[in-house]
Amino acid sequence: MKRTTLGLTLGLMIASSNAQIIPNGEPYRFRARQNPIITHKHTADPAPFVKGDTLFLYTGVDFAGNQGGYKMHEWALFSTTDMMTWTEHKSPLHVDEFKWQNSHAAYAAHVAEKDGKYYFYVSTNWCGIGVAVADSPYGPFKDALGKQLLTNADCPGTDHSWACIDPAIYQENGEAWIYWGNRRCFAAKLKPNMIEIDGEVMDITPEGSDFTEAPWVHKHNGKYYLTFATGWPEKLGYAVGDSPVGPFEYKGIFSEVAGNSNTTHPGIVEFKGKTILFTHNGALHSGTSYSRSVCAQELNYDKEGNILKCDITTDGVPYLQEYYDNKAKQEKAAKKMEDKMGAYLMVYHKDADHGLHMAISYDGYEFIALNEDKPLIAGDTIAMQKGIRDPHIFRGPDGAFYLAMTDLHVFGVRDGYRTTEWERNGRKYGWGNNRGLVLMKSTDLKHWTRTNLNFQELGGKWAEVGCVWAPETCYDEEKGKLFLHFTTRFGNGRNMIYYVYMNDDFTQMEGEPQLLFEAPEGRYNVIDSDITYHDGTYHLYYVSHERGALIKHATSADIAGPYTLDEHYYDGVRTSHEAPNCWKRIGEDTWVVMHDNFHAHPHNFGFTETSDFIHYTPLGSFGEGVMTRTNFAEQKHGAVIHITKREAKMLEKYWNKK
């Protein structure tokens, strides 16, 4: 939000105004039929925040009428689950909550969540940036510091009084950064408590840009996008970088001057499968540069990742009706498919033979191995290294079965396949180094097609790939594509999680793999990712090597992230364990997270159970509680899917004859 005044105004997009006040602070419900989306009061500087299936929209509140400046004393809060029906809630915060300020100006703000707490970062014109905290996104928020978090002294190279405004937060892998500034763009890392700066202030103003104010950072396909107001009257520009703090390469303007307003202010989130840009204009009756109104527009990218032109229109967002129609169809199809399911199929491998094993269960508690626990597919018949590990099976929306496995033999010398411990130099490429995956597809669980992926053939940095482990397949409903994610490293560096989209035949990658998840600043290894989708949220279980090997849980509204760490997961196992796999109990709203207790003797699987992905009940290991295995042991790194009773009986009959 600019602090100077120019006489320029631009027309037009006039919408009706229904001036209303929330009675006694009670929630006020209304429908958004076009832009502006809020018509009963003047709102500005939108800061959207998504939690589960709800979008919270925090805004500043402009006075109505023809005042000659910005008169803003409190912030407003709106929420929606469909972008059509909205609820205005009681004001979560008044500027006078901050006793250290004397501007009484409730300028641009941003709300972020961490560990069940909500942090409200605000700007107050010349007084600096503060932060308030609450136990709920609805507030009430209270000053967390009793002083400024940032002041003009934190804006090197500026000398105007409103340099320290417009805070925005970006979070990833448990870390958070704050952005702010006018005329120059600044960034700093936040300490884990979210109310202190950690380290130096960085000037990240994109070279060649005419940065004005209102920075906002979001991620798309592995790239970081810095959007901001540029020029005067303001337009929206953007820059792209490879990290949350750049360096950012300026790309240009993607949204022209907002109607009847000198200022604009981006807020960009992923919601219900769409990327939505929020900003403001002066389109309401009596609207001006000082009486603005929040609008929403769908944001899109081209194949190269460039933001497409996104000017604010009267029509605005198509209100996600297509999304809800498709979601209803998908849920109906998923429910119809689950109703047909009557058994479980488990896949796993064993160190003794490095082949593919399977087991059947009809109740989700007792599992019986097929083929007397001998390999159904021998690793030396399908893998470049003559052995497979980490098998994962997925049933696609097309009903086909997709197997993904690590192409690796860790006992190649023992079994006569190598004369060296590893295929390549262990000092250069690390423990268990390999180059590829084995992918297989079937429509009947008996006959399979096969593809061997060698990632070195991608060239570039992949020529020095150190490992490709623990692949898993899931489905991106938004893109309608198979989504393959896996552990990798380059040379003997830190392990990270990457992803790539696959063609429908499961034979070719579509594009180069992109980073999905890594430890903060790459300080330690993260491996063995598993993704489960439920009720608008993607749940990522992975193994952190920060302290031993322990399973962690993170969530995102987008399958490709960013993922936010959630500390609720607890499986009761203190020794190192790995290979999480989440599967649903048939006909129940209960999910099981299975893991590999590789420190157990003999090797065993452990289990924990949840109905809400917040509270977890440890079930112990096979043979120690409700979960049993009847004719196998020492299994490793498994996965479970639903199959029909008919398919289970077919498999039993087929393999009993072998």
Keywords, separated by commas or semicolons:
single chain; 658 residues; mainly beta; five-stranded mixed β-sheet; 41 strands; 43% strand; disordered N terminus
What is the compact description of this entry?
The chain has 658 residues and is mainly beta.
Report on the structure:
By secondary structure, the protein is mostly beta strands. It is 5% helix and 43% strand. The chain is built from three helices and 41 strands. The strands form ten sheets. A five-stranded antiparallel β-sheet has the order 1-5-4-3-2, with no helix packed on it. The protein is elongated, with a radius of gyration of 27 Å. The protein starts with 27 loop residues before the first strand and ends with a helix. The N terminus is likely disordered.
SSE topology:
Blueprint lengths: L27 E4 L10 E10 L2 E9 L11 E7 L4 E10 L14 E6 L2 E7 L5 E6 L7 E2 L24 E5 L2 E6 L5 E5 L6 E7 L7 E10 L2 E8 L4 E7 L7 E7 L11 E5 L2 E8 L11 E7 L21 H20 L2 E7 L6 E6 L4 E4 L18 E8 L5 E7 L18 H4 L6 E7 L6 E6 L10 E12 L4 E10 L5 E7 L6 E9 L8 E9 L2 E8 L5 E7 L7 E3 L11 E7 L6 E7 L6 E7 L5 E6 L6 E2 L6 E8 L1 H12 L2
